[in-house]
Design brief:
alpha+beta, Rossmann fold, six-stranded mixed β-sheet, Elongation Factor Tu (Ef-tu), domain 3
Length: about 625
Amino acid sequence: MTHKSIAVIGHVDHGKTALVEALTGTNTDTLAEERARGLTITLGFAHLQMSAGTLHFIDAPGHADFIRTTVSGLSGVDSVLLVVSASEGIEAQTREHFRLARLLGIERVMVTLTKCDLASEAIIETRRAEINALAVEAGDSSLPIISCSARASDGLRDLIHELVSFLSVPASRAKLTDFFLPIDRVFNAPGVGTIVTGTLIGGGVERGTGASIGTELVTIRGIQVAGVPVGSASAGSRVALNLRGINQSEVRKGDVVCAPNAFEPSSRFDVVLRGASGERPKLKHTDQVMIMAGTAYLPARVRMISSGTEPGEPVFAQLELRQPLVGYHGQHFVLRNPAASETVVGGTILDPIAPTVPRRKPLHLAVLRAAETSNPVAISHALADRDRGEVRVKDAARLSGKTVSEVEDALRREFLLASPKLALRHSEVRSATGEFREALTSLHRARPIRPFHASATVTSKLRQAPASILDWVERDLVRSGEVLETASGLALASHDPHTSMTPQQLLDYEQAAARLAEMGLRPTPLFADQTTSAEQEDLIELLIHLGVAVRLYNHGLRQHILLHADVVAAAQDTLRKQFPHGTPFTTGEARAALATNRKTVVPLLELFDRKGVTSREEDVRILAA
């Protein structure tokens, strides 16, 4: 069954409460003070059950002193019923409430001209003209106007017919997959526990499921819609939730009950600001304001990111809230001047978990302009421009109001989904791939006999690309076989260091191999120089790469040792002869058998352990079969 909430707004004493009572049979003024004064102070609630669904009426106060309460009533509704008295006409709060509805992004406005039994036909026509003029001021050609009298019941049937049509119209506001409930009332029911009420936005909610309030996790113990216990409730419903896991004192009006892990409290919102009827927002950098978002009313400071110079041009800003608030992309809000008690501007949240405005403000501004479109592809391109080609999928989802899977589907053509969390733009990946090849080619050209180069050496030449793109490019080139990867580093598969040697390098190579063989298990520096040159280092790497030399590492001395591969093989044979399978031996015994020193035998035995030639148990080793 369809459930929709509709806010009833307008100037004080224009007959809002009487109209709701005539439609539903419920007097929404429940406080004794309200009935005594004939003045609505708090939000009132009533329900009208029809064949097409249920309408939930939210009767908002009409007095200027209760604007905060009125805005709370407007949160989450798709439509408003603007009540205008035929005898009084448009007054201050008529205009203010209509402006608030527009600033909060409520597009569907129906006007009810009440108390028509007290006005002449001429007066009624005049009021209609005034209402249409108000609509034109707001950029509308006209508004639907139903004349009625709550006291005489005239016109109520026409109004109900219009309300039935409203039930069939799809919601026009930001669509949320997960449920989101701004709390407008909190109380404790004896024997039941904490109860919160509000207008449900987004996805449905079910009894027995988990939810969060700020950083607290709770369980939804029970649900009521229109005063009736139900197992679940859908968006648009006025609901009461019985919460387990939190006390009444820990919850207040303005908090949000929402799906767990779907939303996050934040003290910074990136927003777009717009004045009603296209006027330029009257705000300056660092202005102090009060933000009314959902049912919350909090102090905030304005940080201007852009200042629109033309009427109707969007103004982008960051709001720094005095305390964290849960919001979502596409959520509308209004800002009030606390000193003048006036509504300054309306706006829409673009990023509900905004970072501190970066120094590269133009690139950040481009992200916000894209976020205003809610297009995940446009947003991802703006993020990629700002962040050198990489996009965190959850950021694009948050800035577009889409789910992660929706963003992934949208990005597949122009982005590479490198992981469930990261998307990389194809253009930057292609560019980095070419630069990676060129960097490795350049290193091979500069040091042709070096078989491999460390990954960090290659990527150090590519400072423009982020690490995420470089990592993906490297792995992709290795997967394709274009680049070879070993523990020593990377090389183009086409690179052959042996055939790249000059006659002198070939001679040096042969002499080094012979010297290693001569040194046996008592190695000394391979070269006479005190320091090893780059070419000598490359020669050592080539000897290791071609299997001529084996490099050991003595951890105690923090020193590399180079042995000829044939010498290592001979040492293995010697140990097998001296210590047949099953014969334990110590490090000292191995040193004596090999006629070497501790400096060499310790890393040599560690090599044999790693290769499975020997197995060590405490201070002795045994040769494998």
